[in-house]
Design a protein that fits this description.
With 73 residues, this protein is mainly α. The protein is built from 2 helices and no strands. The chain has a domain at 15-64. It has helices spanning 2-13, 51-70. The longest helix has 20 residues, at 51-70.
Length: 73
């Protein structure tokens, strides 16, 4: 029993992602190095790499916003 208790206390001290899962409990995965979240919850995401992609994303988002404003509720 002591061995299991030692493992539990070590796991409690490890950093964990902590993002809320669909069940509502915190994610227990280890975060990516230098990040606060695991790879499933945004630890790998760095965003668009080039200015062309950023501009494309901006145009697409603007078109979505305009479409939503014109759509009847």
């Amino acid at each position: 029993m002591e061995k299991a208790e030692g493992l539990a206390t070590r796991l409690d001290r490890c950093r964990r992602c902590g993002a809320k899962t669909r069940k509502g409990s915190p994610c227990q995965c280890k975060p990516e190095p230098g990040q606060d979240r695991c790879k499933l919850h945004g630890g790998k995401s760095t965003g668009p790499k080039t200015e062309a992609i950023r501009e494309s994303n901006r145009r697409r988002a603007q078109a979505r916003r305009e479409a939503l404003q014109l759509a009847p509720l």
